[in-house]
Design brief:
5 helices, globular, mainly alpha
Length: about 90
């Protein structure tokens, strides 16, 4: 996840711009910032992207899936948008 959000020393400006313009509620947490319930869910499976819903936590992207973005912010947000659209469509059925 760090390759997507950061350069060598700072946050990527592209990440900050995309995050600011996103309609999704995204929150980036370090391991020591996680609530206990999230820490138990993600234990040993980080980095990852997790969605919190009414029925609990769900993995959006695993470590392996994040590596496929190769640090590309645009690819991350495009894939994230697709997963959100898929979630909405399946919820409407």
């Amino acid at each position: 996840m760090c390759e997507i959000t950061h350069n060598s020393f700072t946050k990527k400006k592209e990440w900050e711009r995309k995050l600011f313009n996103s309609k999704l509620k995204l929150k980036v947490l370090h391991l020591d910032e996680q609530p206990e319930s999230l820490s138990k869910f993600s234990n040993g499976k980080t980095p990852c992207v997790i969605k919190k819903g009414q029925d609990g936590y769900k993995f959006v992207f695993t470590k392996d899936e994040l590596e496929e973005f190769n640090g590309n912010v645009d690819l991350f947000f495009e894939a994230l948008k697709k997963t959100e659209l898929m979630s909405r469509n399946s919820a409407e059925k």
